[in-house]
Amino acid sequence: MNEEEMISGEDVMSEGMSSGGHPGMKRRRVFRFTRERQRVKDAAGVLFRYKKILLTYQRLKNMSKAFQIHGVDRNTVASTTPIAEMLLVAPEKVAEVGEFDPSKEKLLDYARRCYVALDEETLSRVQALKKNNLLLPISYRLKGGEDSLKEKETHATTN
Prior knowledge:
Residues 1-27 are annotated as: Disordered. The protein is an all-alpha fold.
């Protein structure tokens, strides 16, 4: 046998298993995401990211895939969700909360202030929009005492 007639094992394998190893099987699409990060620095950035993820979620009906597509962790979005919900549902409350100043506070602290500013009526509107998939159905617990902030607020109004 000369060299021209010899076929390597790789050539035989690639010809016989062109569909990923099993004949007749569909090939799965593998998503490869680059781990580029874009840090959100203000309330407008939070709202922009929230809307992008919301549109993807409405299309896919899968929150984890929507987060994966945009390269964002669920907890990252959950921690800033009160900002986006306040801007979408009750933009008039921005005056009550005040503008975000990055030199004075962190974005997470501003999210806590937004959460405290949401009253019962606004929270019920948010829940209704979440049920209709018009907002992300994401729950959040802000660490650092949102419960104590709510307690202080209710305690101050009762005294």
